[in-house]
């Protein structure tokens, strides 16, 4: 077996004689389903091994929590062609499920879903594998030489293989190699979330005695303090630290787990919210969040992920916090407050939040190619969108609208685009007609691009109409000229451009020319 080298409720009881005070904190239990994989979107260092023999390649793994395996994944190089079949095996070699991969791409991570999810038990060992008829698999030698690899509730013990034209249980290993076989594992956990209405009052029960009663102290909970609203932060170049300090209150430093004292409860893996009216608060999510319900509030949450989820009730768009697209199949009124979204500077066209039916207040969004994307009924306000990622292949914007029903508000934000390359800090692209938008009182720093664009792709600028751009301050740090704006048609229906100034001089910026 040749290979190539490793990279890679709370309940309080107070007793005070002669009075017994029992207090239950008003927390609501909610079931949250999370999805996990071993390797996420990470590619191997070498994607094609020279071996051309038919072979079954697998990974032995052990979940630390019971859950279900819904399918198999493997990384495919461009020469690993033909039909691939994924299987899940018990430790004794009994095949528990299998499925044939369909719709494969030329290269990259491939996934297949079993017809019926398989329940797996915490602490038991299983093998996930796929069969290739042409070899040419992806491999990294020595990956497991230092022992098992753990990601969240999953531990990979080692990779295995079995040569042969037919599918069979793989048991051989070679040089600590990793053949980049993975699973899709889901688990359902119960988390305590803050209720949307006041909880029950403390109950005081007098003791059965004639001794005079004593008043017991009320129990308290510790909740991270909300930041000062950044409405007090100026729209000047010197005020960036004010925006950084007063948005996205969780912060990476506050989220660190130190002797169990973190104010945020850590959730490892992707989160799917399906309960209408849920408040999801005080969490540190190592994964993305798919919102598939209405009237959801996400507050005081840190989201860190190198991949997105698909939210909404219909097929939509992928983002670290996703509601889908074009109404999300009926999703309404997501509120995201005092939340940090960190895309880890992952390559590709990644998105922080998007793209429909949401409000983001005092959000700190960074490390994605597009910070916030919108199509209809979206408000982004008092937020800090900065340090967006660029891998040399995609357009980048802090805020991006590319058509839809509109009703967009972008108000009092600090938008700091990528210094190497950026389309714009705020971009209203006119691939499709639409807009009905207000862009007001923002600090727009285009850096490698423009502060504002009102059209692109060579389309007809009047397609973009009813855009009101007022009271914005434009940084001089824009590679596309001091005015830092282009593609806006002041003659299109409902378009307004007033009192937009260059921050360095206070000079009024005239409405940019149409494309």
Provide the descriptors you would attach to this structure in a database record.
28-stranded mixed β-sheet, mainly beta, 2% helix, single chain, six-stranded antiparallel β-sheet, elongated, 515 residues, disordered N terminus
Structure description:
With 515 residues, this protein is an all-beta fold. A hairpin with a 7-residue loop joins β19 (309-310) and β20 (318-319). The relative contact order is 0.10. The chain has a 28-stranded mixed β-sheet that branches. Strands 7-6-9-4-11-10 form a six-stranded antiparallel β-sheet, with no helix packed on it. Strands 1-2-13 form a three-stranded antiparallel β-sheet, with no helix packed on it. It has two helices and 39 strands. The model is unreliable at 2-27, 193-225, 252-262 and 455-462 (pLDDT under 50).
What is the fold's blueprint, element by element?
Elements: E1 11-16, E2 19-24, E3 28-36, E4 55-63, E5 67-76, E6 85-90, E7 95-100, E8 108-120, E9 126-132, E10 149-151, E11 154-163, E12 181-193, E13 203-206, H1 240-245, H2 252-255, E14 265-268, E15 270-273, E16 279-286, E17 289-291, E18 297-304, E19 309-310, E20 318-319, E21 321-322, E22 334-337, E23 340-342, E24 351-354, E25 356-361, E26 364-366, E27 370-381, E28 384-385, E29 397-411, E30 414-416, E31 424-428, E32 434-440, E33 443-445, E34 450-453, E35 464-470, E36 473-474, E37 485-486, E38 496-498, E39 501-502
């Amino acid at each position: 077996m040749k290979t190539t080298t490793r990279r890679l409720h709370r309940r309080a009881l107070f007793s005070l004689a002669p009075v017994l005070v029992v207090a239950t904190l008003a927390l609501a239990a909610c079931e949250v389903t999370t999805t996990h994989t071993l390797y996420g979107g990470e590619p191997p260092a070498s994607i094609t091994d020279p071996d051309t023999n038919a072979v079954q390649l697998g990974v032995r793994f052990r979940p630390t929590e019971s859950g279900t395996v819904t399918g198999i994944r493997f990384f495919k190089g461009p020469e690993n062609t033909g039909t691939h079949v994924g299987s899940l095996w018990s430790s004794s070699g009994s095949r528990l499920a299998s499925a044939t991969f369909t719709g494969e791409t030329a290269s990259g991570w491939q996934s297949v879903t079993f017809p019926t999810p398989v329940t797996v038990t915490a602490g038991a060992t299983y093998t996930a594998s796929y069969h290739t008829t042409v070899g040419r698999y992806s491999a990294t030698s020595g990956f497991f030489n230092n022992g098992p690899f753990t990601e969240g509730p999953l531990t990979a013990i080692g990779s295995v293989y079995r040569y042969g034209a037919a599918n069979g249980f793989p048991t051989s290993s070679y040089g600590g190699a990793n053949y980049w076989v993975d699973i899709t594992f889901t688990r359902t956990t119960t988390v305590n979330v803050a209720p949307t209405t006041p909880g029950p009052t403390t109950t005081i029960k007098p003791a059965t005695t004639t001794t005079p009663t004593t008043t017991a102290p009320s129990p308290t909970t510790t909740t991270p303090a909300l930041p000062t609203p950044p409405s007090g932060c100026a729209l000047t170049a010197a005020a960036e630290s004010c925006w950084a300090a007063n948005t996205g209150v969780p912060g990476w430093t506050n989220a660190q787990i130190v002797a169990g004292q973190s104010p945020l409860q850590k959730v490892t893996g992707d989160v799917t919210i399906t309960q209408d009216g849920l408040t999801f608060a005080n969490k540190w999510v190592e994964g993305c969040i798919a919102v598939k319900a209405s009237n959801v509030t996400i507050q005081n949450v840190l989201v860190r992920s190198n991949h997105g989820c698909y939210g909404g009730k219909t097929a939509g768009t992928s983002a670290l916090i996703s509601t889908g697209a074009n109404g999300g199949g009926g999703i309404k009124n997501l509120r995201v407050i005092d939340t940090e979204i960190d895309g880890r500077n992952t390559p590709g066209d990644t998105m922080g939040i998007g793209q429909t039916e949401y409000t983001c207040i005092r959000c700190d969004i960074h490390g994605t190619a597009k910070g916030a994307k919108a199509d209809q009924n979206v408000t982004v306000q008092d937020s800090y969108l900065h340090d967006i990622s660029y891998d040399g292949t995609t357009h980048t914007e802090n805020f991006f609208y590319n058509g839809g029903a509109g009703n967009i508000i972008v108000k009092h934000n600090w938008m700091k685009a990528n210094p190497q390359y950026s389309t714009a800090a705020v971009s209203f692209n006119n691939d499709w007609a639409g807009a009905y938008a207000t862009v007001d009182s923002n600090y727009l720093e285009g850096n490698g691009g423009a502060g504002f664009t009102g059209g692109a792709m060579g389309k007809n600028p009047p397609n973009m109409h009813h855009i009101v751009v007022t009271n914005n301050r434009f940084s001089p740090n824009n590679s596309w000229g001091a005015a830092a704006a282009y593609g806006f048609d002041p003659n299109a229906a409902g378009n307004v451009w007033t009192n937009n100034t260059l921050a360095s001089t206070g000079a009024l910026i005239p409405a940019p020319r149409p494309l």
